[in-house]
Specification:
This protein is an alpha/beta fold and about 300 residues long. The protein is built from ten helices and twelve strands. The strands form three sheets. The protein has a six-stranded mixed beta sheet, sandwiched between helices. A four-stranded mixed beta sheet has the order 9-10-11-12.
Amino acid sequence: MSSVIFLSNKLKESWEKNVMDKKTNEISTNSNLLALRKVRINTIEDYCKLLIEEMNKINSKYMISDVEFVDIPVPGNSKSALNAGRIAKKIDNEYYTEAYIFISNPYLGSRNIFGSQQIFPGLSYLIKNYINSPSYELANHPIYFINGSTDSITESMIKTLVSIELMGIRYVQLFKSKKEIIKKPKNDLVWYSNFISNNENGDKDNNGVIKTDYYEIDYINREISFSTKTFKEDDISKFGSSDRFFVVKSYPALILADQDKYRIDVIKIEKFMEKYGKGRSNFEPFLLFAKKLRERDRF
């Protein structure tokens, strides 16, 4: 019995819609289509065929036969998560979700948005929706991040990919080779913290503290404290997508800290959200998940 990949109609429209060049006042071809043509993919339909082929290679049990663009690919995510989708199997005229997918645009524009912008807040919605489940996974089904970008992979993108894999998200690369990811993630909080801080030699200070842009750990006393360092509180109007960049780097740390029995401190994030109300759609699920992990440790 075959499955279908459901993606958003709005995603398809954003890839196909031609744009007005503000300098020349002329219509130009969509950047996503231009990016695909560079790798000999001429239409969205051709892109979908490649997506089906690669996903069936990753997991043949899905037996994916089609990609459908619909108004609500993942319930609750239609407005806030353009790049969210799901794999579903039809049984007795009903579609049952087998996995969730998040897909990058063929043309990124800015490498900084890679991963974080496509996965969140869609994943945040799923985490919040299933927070009361008995499982301690991020969602109730497998999650895939599909790198459909034709851009080469930079060091900053590799850091994001390492974070994604440590979150338990399966990575699929449509173009180029996955060998471009030169770092194999280690299931270790100290290693991860040094890695995202460009301290790959593993140097530690005398006090047993490692500081990153998103949190600091005291690996001697087994404590992790999440930070608002990147939120630009001195000029909150520049907050931008700080919440997305924060959660994509902080969920792996939260999961690894729980694994290694660290005390988890999220008070600064709670106070920031209460004071400014920024990033609520991503911070609330993060705090709920942290609370769920801390409560498990009491038993």
